[in-house]
Specification:
1 helix; about 25% strand
Amino acid sequence: MTNNHLTDSVIAIVLGTGVGMILSVFGQKMVNQHYKDTCHEKPGHNLVLTRGFLGDTYFCIDSKYIVNH
């Protein structure tokens, strides 16, 4: 049986990318929960939600950077 190095490399890249994306989603969920729990304790800060490829992201932004239209 022959060993195909290209196939092994492609499989490693695909698996590594998949595992990395899953870990980043779980990491983002932890950071989001932290901001939800602590942002209200900071005076003059607002919780801001953005939506992206890997899901929702929360940021705790100082009110001076938020412009109301």
